[in-house]
Automatic annotation (TrEMBL):
<dbReference type="InterPro" id="IPR023213">
    <property type="entry name" value="CAT-like_dom_sf"/>
</dbReference>
<dbReference type="InterPro" id="IPR050537">
    <property type="entry name" value="2-oxoacid_dehydrogenase"/>
</dbReference>
<protein>
    <recommendedName>
        <fullName>Dihydrolipoyllysine-residue succinyltransferase component of 2-oxoglutarate dehydrogenase complex</fullName>
        <ecNumber>2.3.1.61</ecNumber>
    </recommendedName>
</protein>
<dbReference type="InterPro" id="IPR000089">
    <property type="entry name" value="Biotin_lipoyl"/>
</dbReference>
<dbReference type="GO" id="GO:0033512">
    <property type="term" value="P:L-lysine catabolic process to acetyl-CoA via saccharopine"/>
</dbReference>
<comment type="subunit">
    <text>Forms a 24-polypeptide structural core with octahedral symmetry. Part of the 2-oxoglutarate dehydrogenase (OGDH) complex composed of E1 (2-oxoglutarate dehydrogenase), E2 (dihydrolipoamide succinyltransferase) and E3 (dihydrolipoamide dehydrogenase); the complex contains multiple copies of the three enzymatic components (E1, E2 and E3).</text>
</comment>
<comment type="similarity">
    <text>Belongs to the 2-oxoacid dehydrogenase family.</text>
</comment>
<dbReference type="GO" id="GO:0005829">
    <property type="term" value="C:cytosol"/>
</dbReference>
<dbReference type="InterPro" id="IPR036625">
    <property type="entry name" value="E3-bd_dom_sf"/>
</dbReference>
<feature type="domain" description="Lipoyl-binding">
    <location>
        <begin position="107"/>
        <end position="182"/>
    </location>
</feature>
<dbReference type="Pfam" id="PF02817">
    <property type="entry name" value="E3_binding"/>
</dbReference>
<dbReference type="GO" id="GO:0006099">
    <property type="term" value="P:tricarboxylic acid cycle"/>
</dbReference>
<dbReference type="InterPro" id="IPR004167">
    <property type="entry name" value="PSBD"/>
</dbReference>
<keyword id="KW-0816">Tricarboxylic acid cycle</keyword>
<dbReference type="InterPro" id="IPR001078">
    <property type="entry name" value="2-oxoacid_DH_actylTfrase"/>
</dbReference>
<keyword id="KW-0012">Acyltransferase</keyword>
<dbReference type="Pfam" id="PF00364">
    <property type="entry name" value="Biotin_lipoyl"/>
</dbReference>
Amino acid sequence: MATEIRVPTLGESVTEATIAQWFKKPGDAVNADEPIVELETDKVTVEVPAPASGTLSDILVKEGDTVEVGALLGQIAEGAGAAAPAKAAAPAADKPAAKSAAPAAETIDVLVPSAGESVTEAEVGEWFVKVGDSVKVDETLVELETDKAAQEIPAPQAGTVVEISASTGDTVTPGQLLARIAVGAGAAAAASAAAAAPAPAAAAAGSSMPPAPSAAKMMAEKGLSADQVAGSGKRGQVLKGDVIAAVAAGMTAPAQAAAPVAARPASLPEDEVREERVRMTKLRQTIARRLKDAQNTAAMLTTYNEVDMGPVMELRKTYKDLFEKKHGVKLGFMGFFTKAVCHALKEIPAVNAEIDGTDIIYKNYCHVGVAVGTDKGLVVPVVRDADQMSIAQIEQEIGNLGRKARDGKLGMADMTGGTFTISNGGVYGSLMSSPILNAPQSGILGMHKIQERPMVVNGQIVARPMMYLALSYDHRIVDGKEAVTFLVRVKESLEDVQRLVLDL
């Protein structure tokens, strides 16, 4: 009786894969769960294990062929594999022997979780464990950094770490193996074998693996060479997704790359020894790219005004204790500003819209992003449907999002879908600045430091607590009149705070 080897399910959006390489040939003995063939998709490489022990009798698709999920790849005949000597079942040379060191132990795979529809990769940050360590359930194993936030990966079960498959700095994709944990009676033996196994040699610069067939085809179409594309597959193999990412990043054929970025001038020898070079985190790289893209894409302009914060400060002083007692959160300024912004967005909908090609998309809702500075960079969690919330509800949601940001627990759902952004540089002492748009949004409001300044009120010069406001906007969609009117409406709402309470 023969056992079929079929293409496994590769993810909800993946329908086909390419045969990257076979680890066995017809007639070879195989053991159950031994890697037998490697598949490559546009996102990741996947090793298909043998479903049973025996002898590989047939290979029905050759390397380079494209197959659909569920397609028959080959067949295993019963009999020989179970009795095969251990070295006949050894995995490929780059596979650690620790994988089969403790047959009595059940191993649990720790995979890269899905981080949201728009996130296709993450960077491995700090590992908190090493091979041989015992871990408890939910104990943090490693931190992953995406272009949005950092995410801690917990242990799914208690056990012993027997394999770590990705190093700090590696780029990984959802579903990719991070580590294996041995559980059960054989865990200790598996850990001892794993810890004793020699570490694999460091990979040489570049990759000895040829590009995956689909990647090679696309590289030829785009005129790219292998040294222009960083591979994320096994042993640095270039995948189709890597080529797509390189093209999206602006990589062109060598003949067209006429204007490379100027090289950084070398430091003086006496200065170089006092310098420290630190690799940018994934989040910081994305912040840099998105801010520069916003400058290059939008016709960005900034208009300014100032607001007398006296009425808001007096109301806050009068009711802050009662407010905190009733709602369980402190009464700050962000609730007032968010509410004022929502009122102005309803009147000036262009500021709440975005451009999509030759279309303008008007948003009939207000998802207000609130920029929060963390030790890992700027993140912008979103207060959804802020226009339907009271000031108390807004303050509660902002407080909740702020705590999650500081603890590194923001999810993708917390940071996507914003239609307008508020940035409060005043908490750091900024008196005036011009915020950069959070693309594809068309407007961002900059708040600043409250400072007493001499103002003329009813013919008298008095000291008033004033704040400069700055609205940066995309002039392709927002006219100057609309931008100025928007900022005036925010000013009017804050200086006549009863308008916010009465929803006027």
